[in-house]
Every structure is written in structure tokens, then in C-alpha cells.
Write a structure and sequence with these properties.
FAD/NAD(P)-binding domain, eight-stranded mixed beta sheet, globular
Length: 406
């Protein structure tokens, strides 16, 4: 079965790319190992444990591909402020959307909500062929085309294949793409909790001796007391915390968060995720491109992973549409190199920043503790520096694709 473009992975990033190219006149197949079924949703449903902090740029992309209304119609929790502090010192920073005349810094949204809104948009459009329950077994290139062999024996071919199949990308592995990667030696515990005090539409982050702890604001049926937590701890600590019953876990979590929102009253089932940083040495080769977590995974310190992936999708769509307008081949390495040149520096800079923060706040040496506290206090005292951070959080700086621009 021949196509112009095969996207492997119908998650948030792959589905966004498919929608961004739906009017290009291409034969597009969107292949995924899952069933690609939209789950029933009710406003009273429990929160999914995995969430993303969608920036203003990501919201704009999702609006333009027709998915944001489906997200807002389900559940999206805006946040207007961010408070960060060092649990081992006195340094703290407060960021506010109002400081740059913005209404919000972003939205905390469950990944499943984003995914289902994208699937709804794909179903409503109908121009992209969905191939569900399709596990990739083999990948080979012959005379300029890539042929994908699925577990059921079906074969698909296209001149261009895009890997959007996550951090453990089968496409990246089968195509022999090399990566640089290392283990953070930390795990992230994620869940949703209800606190005694409302979340104030604020993203809270405390740097503890074990790792960063984030409380991200959620809202369910008008109740602002909920938060999504991401707690980064050592593997030993993660095992200990996951073994606690709910009562003991709530107490440990409240202490670690310094009871900024009062007692933790309820806790949903917990997930524990090993943290590993990974970056492909190249994002492209002839007829192949990597986007999203297939190209790069970073520490969840600032919730930037999905924002980077959505920008990958928007830039790649822009590059491919420009190539079509020129009559160039989509699989031409020179075309795909334009995508890599635009995205790799930005992704590497974000990864380096997250790595630097993670190392600085894990440091026990007294000079480094002093440095980070002075740094936090210094930024807090400089409105211009804070505004720069806020614009970065909004995702509205740098080389933005047209889909992300206001």
C-alpha cells in the first residue's frame, strides 16, 4: 500500500503533524500500535495521571489544526502564575502572566484529553487514513521508498516516513539512528491530589534535597483544590514512596511541599516513571525524519517536552508545505535538513537549560547552594529578567513556525 507520507505514532505530536498537512493534497497514513479510539469523557471523570503544561504557542498550534475546541470542551486548567523556591534555602521567584500583559501562562491538560481531541479532529476531517493496532516489525529502504512491515504481515510504503512513536521509537531503532542518552538516576512519581486550599491557578515548584516537586493546578467541575504532581526522587526514594499506603504518602507529600496548599486530602493512584534524557544525533536522513520524543526526551522539570514536540510538528509541516510549493521532493535530504537546522538548536538549548537546573538544584556543596539562592533572589529582583523567563514559558520567542504565531 503506497502513500506519500507515513507518520508512525498517532500520539499528540504525530496527530498534530497529520492535521497540519491534511490540506496538502498528500496521501497520508497515520500508523499506531494502539486502537485509536476516543474514550468516553464526563466532567466528573478522575484525572489521568499524565499531564502536559501546554504553552501559549502550543495552544495556538492546536487551535489552528482544529483540536483546541475539543480540549477546552473536555477539561483544561489555565494557570496564571508560577512560584519556584529552594527548599534548602531562602531563594524564590514568582512569575506572572500579568507581567507581560498575558491572560495566562499556559494550561495544564491531561495527555489523554489532548489525544482524544486530536483524534476527533482527524475523524471529522477524514483525509488522513488511520491505521490502528499496527505494530512495526521491519523497516527497509529500497529505491528511494521506505517499506514498513507490520506485525500482521501488512506492508506499507512511502517516500517519506516520520517517526513520532515516542522515546522508545521503533522507527529510530530499525533505521539505525544513533542517540546520545543518559540516565538521570531519578524516577518521577506522578498522580493527582486534592489539597485543603485552592491551587490559585499557580504552578508551584519546590526544589528538595531529593529532587524537584511540582504541584500543577487542575480543576474538575469547578473545584480548584486539585493538582497534578510530578515528584522527582532517587530510585531508592521512589521505591519507598510507592510502597506507602495512601495516608502515609499524603503525609510525606505534604511535608515535602511545606504544606503550601494545606494538607493533602486525597490522592489518586500513582505512577512511577524512570527519567532518562535522550537526543538523536541527527533528526533526519534520506526520506526519514524524527520528531517529538522520538528525537529528544528531557527532564519533566518544566513540562516542556510536549511543547518542543508540537513545535517540531509545526516546523516540519511548514518545511514540507514550502517544498511542495516549490515542486521539490519531500524526501530530499536538503528539504529535511531545513527542519533539522531550525529545531535542533532550540531543542538542545532547552535540554541544556533543564540539565543545568537539575544539576544545580541537586548539588549539596555549600557554595552551589549559596549560588542558587543568590540567583533566585537576583532574578526575582529584576523585572526585565523575569519577563524574559515568562516569554520563554509562553513559547513565543525564537524561530516560531507560522502555526504558532499570533
Amino acid at each position: 500500500m503506497q502513500a506519500d507520507l507515513i507518520i508512525v505514532g498517532a500520539g499528540m505530536v504525530g496527530s498534530t503533524l497529520a492535521l497540519a498537512l491534511r490540506d496538502a493534497g498528500l496521501t497520508i497514513k497515520l500508523v499506531d500500535a494502539g486502537p485509536l479510539r476516543v474514550q468516553p469523557f464526563a466532567p466528573s471523570d478522575p484525572f489521568e495521571p499524565r499531564v502536559s503544561a501546554l504553552s501559549a504557542a502550543s495552544q495556538r498550534i492546536l487551535e489552528r489544526v482544529g483540536a483546541w475546541s475539543g480540549i477546552a470542551g473536555r477539561r483544561a486548567s489555565p494557570y496564571t502564575d508560577m512560584r519556584v523556591w529552594d527548599g534548602s534555602g531562602t531563594g524564590q521567584i514568582h512569575f506572572s502572566a500579568a507581567s507581560v500583559h498575558a491572560e495566562v501562562l499556559g494550561h495544564i491538560v491531561e495527555n489523554r484529553v489532548v489525544q482524544d481531541a486530536l483524534l476527533d479532529a482527524l475523524a471529522a476531517d477524514g483525509s488522513v487514513e488511520l491505521v490502528p493496532n499496527a505494530r512495526l516489525e521491519q523497516l527497509r529502504q529500497n529505491e528511494g521508498d521506505w517499506t514498513l512491515t507490520l506485525a500482521d504481515g501488512q506492508q506499507l510504503s512511502a517516500g517519506l516516513v516520520v517517526a513520532a512513536d515516542g522515546g522508545n521509537s521503533a522507527v529510530r531503532r530499525l533505521a539505525g539512528c544513533e542517540t546520545r542518552e543518559w540516565d538521570y538516576l531519578h524516577h518521577a512519581i506522578v498522580t493527582s491530589v486534592r489539597c485543603a486550599e485552592p491551587n490559585q491557578q499557580t504552578a508551584w515548584q519546590r526544589f528538595t534535597d531529593d529532587g524537584p516537586l511540582a504541584f500543577l493546578p487542575l480543576q474538575r467541575e469547578g473545584d480548584p483544590h486539585w493538582c497534578s504532581i510530578v515528584w522527582s526522587v532517587t530510585e531508592h526514594q521512589a521505591q519507598r514512596l510507592m510502597a506507602l499506603d495512601d495516608e502515609a504518602f499524603r503525609q510525606a507529600l505534604g511535608r515535602a511541599f511545606e504544606y503550601r496548599l494545606g494538607d493533602v486530602l486525597e490522592v489518586d493512584p500513582r505512577l512511577c516513571i524512570p527519567l532518562r534524557q535522550r537526543h538523536a544525533k541527527r533528526y533526519v536522513q534520506s526520506g526519514l525524519a524524527l520528531i517529538g520524543d522520538a528525537a529528544h526526551t528531557i527532564h519533566p522539570l518544566a513540562g516542556q517536552g510536549v511543547n518542543l514536540g508540537l513545535l517540531d510538528a509545526a516546523v516540519l509541516a511548514e518545511v514540507l508545505l514550502a517544498a511542495l510549493n516549490r515542486g521539490a521532493s519531500l524526501s530530499d535530504p536538503r528539504v529535511l535538513a531545513r527542519f533539522e537546522r531550525r529545531r535542533m538548536p532550540h531543542n538542545l538549548a532547552m535540554m541544556a537549560a533543564m540539565e543545568g537546573f537539575e544539576r544545580l538544584f541537586q548539588a549539596d556543596a555549600l557554595p552551589l547552594r549559596w549560588l542558587r539562592n543568590v540567583g533566585l533572589k537576583g532574578v526575582q529582583a529584576l523585572p526585565e529578567a523575569k519577563a524574559l523567563f515568562v516569554r520563554q514559558a509562553l513559547g513565543l520567542s525564537g524561530d516560531l513556525p507560522e502555526l504558532a504565531r499570533y
